[in-house]
Each structure stands twice: as structure tokens, then as C-alpha cells.
Amino acid sequence: MPKLLVALLMAVTISAIVEAKPQEATLSTPDEFKNEFEMVPCNNSDRQEAVTTLFKKMGAPVSEIRVEKYTNSENVLVRKPGTAEGVLVVGAHYDKVSAGCGAFDNWTGVVAIAHIYRSVKSISLKKTVLFVAFGNEEQGAFGSRGMANAIDQAELANYCAMVNIDSLGLTWPQVMDNTSSESMRALVEGVANDLKISFAHARIEGGDADSSSFLRRKIPAVTIHGMTEDWPMILHSMVDRPAAVKPESVYLGYRLALAVLTRLDSMPCNAYR
Question: Domain coordinates of the chain in residue numbers?
Fold first, then answer.
């Protein structure tokens, strides 16, 4: 699809969904997403601190931000308590490969989950939401595996679902079918249709994502991405810099994931098992 047409379709979609505001939620704007990519931490050694700084900027109390250590990884976790039982995980990995700045893969995901936190932090949710920036995904999903494997068997049923965001920024939101459960794929597609967001399914053969760590523990999970057929020329390359990211694409992924989160919060915990 010609890039100009993609841009026009995105502009129309954004205009359409701005009217569909979740009640009481603080919605970020497309311009705010553009600002988030003016500076991206290009060194892995700087990214964990940058994650913490971003969540503080989004209004997270220091008391709700913690670093959890697992074998070969450290995750940054922000907890929003719910009013009833049930846990939802919203995650994105913050580490990068050595080439490039990791703006596309996966600072886009970190920005999206931080803004989702900002949107819901002041509203009442039934379920507790864990916003997690996973470490060391690129070397084997160590952060998400560590977290998922640490969940006690008796607590698994209380983990209702996991939403993973990885590599937004090129086009409209898509679901990575091969790292997502069938029920969650259908949920995201239904929410996208309700919001009138352009949406697609896309298998990434040989690819994996942090959602798989939760699927292995039988927790419903989905990975939302925003890649086009050009992704092999950007992902894990020197081209992965802020200039490669279309902020409007990240905004669309944020709006879709936010709506998915609120839908999950309104449903019984076992609705998507």
C-alpha cells in the first residue's frame, strides 16, 4: 500500500476514534506521542532508568514503581490496584539489540504502556493491573519468562489475561497470531471494529514475543504490533531510530490496547480462557 495512502487512512482513523473517549480516562494525544520520540535512549544501560522516568512523568507514585529481578533480567513494574479480584498484565520489553536505537523495537511499546497507565491511573478498575517493562527479551524473553514462571500455581487462575505490545510504529495495529491465544485474537479484532480502527492479523513466522511466556502458563495473551512487510529492513538494524517511527501508528496501538484493557476489566476473569 502506498505510504501516502497509509498516512491518510491513519489520519481519518485518528479523527474518528478521538470521539470515542473512555469515561473519565485521561487520553493522550497524537502530538504527545510525537514528543515522546524526540529523545529515545539508544543505549541499553540507560533504558531501565528511562522507563522509570517515563512512568513518573505519567504520574506513577514512586511507591508503586519497583524493579523485580529474575535470572538474567530485571523488570520495571507499576501496580494499579483494583477493587476486586483478578489480575491483568500489560507489558512491553524495554531492551534492544546492539544495532540502532531500538526506537521501533521496542521503545514504542514502552511509550504505549506508560500512556495507558496514565489514562487509567485515576479511574476505578475492578482488576489489578500490572504494567510491566520486561528486560532482556531480545536474548530469550528472560524478563517475561521470569515473571510468568514465578506465578504460584494456586494464583494462576487469578491472572485473567496478558496484553503485550511490541514494535508499533509503521502502520495500523495488528495481532501477531502465532504468539496470541485464539480468544484474545478475537477480542482485539472485535474492539478494533468497534473503534473503527483499521486492523489486521499477521503471523511472523519464526518470531516470538513476551506473550508466549504467559501462554505457556495457560494465561490468555496477545501481542499487538504495528509492522508492515518492510519490517525486516528496520527491526534489529541501524535503521531502527526515531525517524523510522510513525507516532500516529503508536497512538493507534495505544488507543486499541487501552480499549482492550477496559474491555477485559469489565469481563469475568475466565471469559477468554
Answer: 28-155+169-201+213-266
Q: What is the mean pLDDT of residues 234-244?
A: 95
Cell of 136: 532482556
- Nearest 5°: the CA angle 50, 51, 56 is 95
Worst-scoring range by mean pLDDT, 17-26, 68-77, 112-121, 197-206? 17-26
Tens of pLDDT along 94-137? 999 999 999 999 999 999 999 999 999 999 999 999 999 999 99
pLDDT recorded at residue 22: 53
How many other CB atoms are there within 10 angstroms of residue 259's CB atom? 21
- What are the helix (H) ranges across the chain? 3-17, 30-36, 44-57, 108-120, 142-150, 182-195, 211-215, 247-266
Contacts of 101 (CB under 8 A, 6+ apart): 40, 41, 42, 107, 240, 241, 242
CATH superfamily of 28-155+169-201+213-266: Zn peptidases (3.40.630.10)
Q: Which long-range contacts link 60-66 to residues 24+ away (Cβ below 8 Å)?
A: 60/117, 60/121
The 10 Å Cβ neighbour count of residue 218 is: 12
Per-residue b/e over 97-112, b at no fewer than 16 CB within 10 Å? eeebbbbbbbbbbbbb
Is the per-residue pLDDT at 176 higher than 60?
yes
